[in-house]
Amino acid sequence: MTFIYSIILLVTAVILANFIAQKFTAVPQSIWQIILGLLCAMTPSLSNYIVNLDPEWFMMLVIAPLLFFEGQQTQKQTISQNIKNILRLSIMLALITMIIIGWGIHHFLNWPFAIALALAAIVTPTDATALNSVNNGLIMPTKVERSLNLESMFNDATGIVALELAIVWINTGHLSVSEVLRKFGFVALGGIIFGLAAGFFVIQLRKYLLRKQFDDMTAQVLLQLLTPLIIYVAAEKIGVSGIIAAVIAGIIHHEERNRTLLVSAQMNNLITQLWKVITQLLNGVVFVILGLSLVPILKNVFGLRLEKSVGIITIAFLIYAGMLLLRYFYALYDAKRINKKIPKDVFKDALVFSLGGVHGTVTLAMAFSLPLYLANHQIFKVRESILTISALVILFSLIVPLILLPRILPKEQETFDINELDQAYKEIVNAALAYINTLEISDERRQKLTHRIQTQLVYKYNRDPQTWNKVVKELDDVRNRAVENAIEDDLLSADAIKLWHRMNEGRKYKQQTVRGLKNRIRCWHMLYRSWERMLNLFLTDKQKVQYRVRKYRRRIGKLERKKLKATNKEERTYIQGKITKLERKISFVQIYRDDEQRHRWTEALQEIDDVTADDVALFVEKVDEQNSDKGIVIALREKINNEKLNVRTQLDVEAQQNVDLMSILQFELGFIKDRHIEGKYSGNLTKILYDDIIAAQSIILEVGI
């Protein structure tokens, strides 16, 4: 159970860190994840549930899927066009870094060269995901960013092979150059060949299953999610690089996805979205684990004497600084080699390339893979020092770019901000509501569609009370004038006139009630109303009428007792007015219960709607034109539609409602397209809006229309 608790703790830490990062954007998400890991490890009640993850499991369950997904995002043309650059970065630069850094550690720390080489191999591999966490919101030079991503995909294998050879050297005391070259060639080339073969085999297997109608969505998705794990394990079993095999298989799967984009679009979309979520989770878990691991490491550092603590921190920083210089001069050399003249921005690009060598997941996994005991059964004494230095190098590689890159690189100019997105949604919803009003459908269907379209805003419009009250008063004035003109022109029946007067009385009573509620406990009132609504769910129409009549009669009884105790005429008159209103309500409920009378009220309400419809529509258009914030227009449309349902018969129109909703969403897509053509919506904003609406259409089709 402890392992399960550990997983829950890690995932919870990732969730909290991601939410915090959304609120405090100045600090990268990965740093928050490390901080949450630190807090978990330092909290006694939580640290009991933390277990050490075996490095082999870590490489298989975390590193292999991450690199497989990175491969899926890379086109094979990119690899073929940059093959020389990849070899120089992932092999030549990595080996030069290991040899020079290893020599420095050997010379200054007096460690055996084999041990120094092991530490150098651990801290050399870079991590593109960790880089993304520190350059978020910055514009990286295109060539530099591509080089960093390609380097991080393939230099992991170089570091892992070098570490394996260094451990062999430590255990045996010798290592021949020919053996090193043979081992490296077999592991690296074998990983490439195995990745190609395994990736091709899995793709053909999936195609065969699809042709034979074995197209179960769950099974197909799980097959691809398991692919990097199976390929990694199989590659490691035969002695080749599982990391390179996973990357190559990912690249092959990218090509397969492009070919089957229209054949199995839904499956491809689902797999892509799943991989995005899984990779984000795994990256978060890695940094939380780094935070967890730092606690015992930092305890060891600060548990030493001050000069030793400062010494080990200095060593880690010097190793990191040495790698920065090597990467900087390599970038200058590469630029001079390619260009006859030194490019204008070469020094800046070289510095960005140098700082972009951020370390993360693989470095951490390799450090933990060091054996506790050597072949002669002696304790590997410097293991803790290597772990400590490696962890500090990771921290320096995250913190230094976080400080320097914003001072070197320009910030991304956001094509839109959250307020613009919010305003765009309001415009879309407002246009859709106007479109709904043009449809020849019942008021019940219109109200339901209005409510469902408004959910695109996620929240209710937070209207300004002063502005809203002014608009509502103007709406009432428009209706009153329209009805008065209709009465003068003898366009309304006696029932319609009577209903209009009652509706006006109801509005006045409601306004008085709202004013009175300011001096009451509103929370209690809301709870009481909620209880009433819940109770009505379980009552028949006849029982609802009886319940309301009994409730009004109980109120009348209380008011009559209060009236008898009243001491002055004004108070008795006020109470009698309340009793009269309640008696009218009882009369209205009992009359409405009668089918014939209810039909009369419905026709009367329709008459009122007919004589006010044109004036109300013109008023809404006027408000729409005068207000740039469409939220108040949306709220106004909602109020008008809800008021039309006072005495409507409820119908089961769910299926037809979905058909209408599909039509409205299609209208919204056209509206967004027009806005984009007009230049009012940027490309990124249009994509986000399109994705949301298309996803909604897919859900409706999945549920059924």
Quick overview of this protein structure:
By secondary structure, the chain is mainly alpha-helical. Helix content is 80%, strand content 0%.
* Mean pLDDT level: 79
Mass-distribution shape: elongated
Question: SS-based structural class?
Answer: mainly alpha
CATH class of the domain at 1-408: Mainly Alpha
**Uncertain segments:** 509-522, 646-655
CATH architecture of the domain at 1-408: Up-down Bundle
Pfam family, one: Na_H_Exchanger
Transmembrane segments: 31-51, 86-105, 111-132, 153-172, 184-205, 225-252, 277-298, 310-330, 350-374, 386-405
GO molecular function: potassium:proton antiporter activity; sodium:proton antiporter activity
Membrane topology: Multi-pass membrane protein
How would you describe this protein?
With 705 residues, this protein is mainly α. Helix content is 80%, strand content 0%. The chain contains 28 helices and no strands. It has helices at residues 2-23, 29-42, 44-47, 55-72, 76-81, 83-109, 113-123, 128-134, 142-172, 177-211, 217-237, 242-259, 265-303, 306-338, 346-355, 361-368, 383-408, 418-438, 443-454, 465-488, 494-517, 522-536, 541-565, 569-593, 595-626, 631-643, 654-677, 683-703. The two termini are 45 Å apart.
